[in-house]
Amino acid sequence: MTNLANVAVRNLRIELGANTVIEDLDLDVRAGEFVVLLGPSGCGKSTLLHSIAGLIDVTDGSIEIGGEDMTWADPKDRGVALVFQSYALYPTMNVERNMSFALRINGTPKPEIERRVKRAADMLQLGPLLARKPAQLSGGQRQRVAIGRALVREADVFLFDEPLSNLDAKLRTELRRELKQLHQQLGATMIYVTHDQVEAMTLATRMAVMKGGVIQQFGTPAEVYARPENLFVATFLGTPPMNLLRGTLAADEGKLWFRGPQLSVDVTNYAFKGAPDLTRPCMLGVRPEDVRAGVPGGALQGHVTLVEPMGNHRVLWLDYHGVQIAAIDQDKTPLAGGAPVPFEIDVQHVSLFDEASGERL
User: Fold this and answer.
1) CA distances from 108 to 116, 117, 152, 177 (A)
2) Which domain of life is it from (predicted)?
């Protein structure tokens, strides 16, 4: 059976040639968690995953798995199983032999191999396909085999390096659901790398948003989405991303206001991290779903520049004094370009950032 192990990364530094890819990084993955490393290409997320797997040597720092120092341990001794972006299946072997290859090489008894392969095949609905070769499988089935090959190892930690990125949208959705159900069945520790925010939001128990080899924010998907720690997280997460308006803070008649272009928003009840600085320019962030378009008598008014139908909702792009504001709208009333649309901002769900540093206020 799969054991549960935590992963602790401390002061990690990784240099590849003359480039520092990861700088002084800490990460704590609890036993049984599904942690997603999310970020744009080149942010260091795959490098971090491969260092945990032992495929990349670290320059400085330490990596513990299950409470044991594995910084310089061989990959085979770390108790991890890695699923790559490419299937990397042996074309001359059938599904059963692809899944059991590592076990056979290690001399695992045949009855134990059969038990593990059957268990993984049942979980991944591969039972009827065990006799087929990779060329006879669809892309989604091949990726299931690659996942099954990792599962039969019954590792302490499962690592996934963008395993769904080569699949079409429908298959990605199906396998994403299956991966989440698999985690619920196994309760195993899993670390998953992706640049797809939908995968991160739906799969993760906690997610680490990365940029330039640095973790910008680490928390539950709900926390990271609702309270982004900086402008990068605010704009990277969300489709469309968070709307941003430049302005300043002002105290007036016992209340605190954000003052922007033709705009005043009461932020008296905003949970500031410290005493608000009224001298520094700041930015107001509001998610598109918190912009209430078409509200009769709305205090603000924009003009339609674009309508994006999305099936069960639409995205309205409104010009507001030269700033483009996205609003998620459920109304189906046709709107022409340039049409005036009154709107309001839900002040209970706004974010404020220091314009210079980009940090959350």
Assistant:
1) 11, 12, 11, 31
2) Bacteria
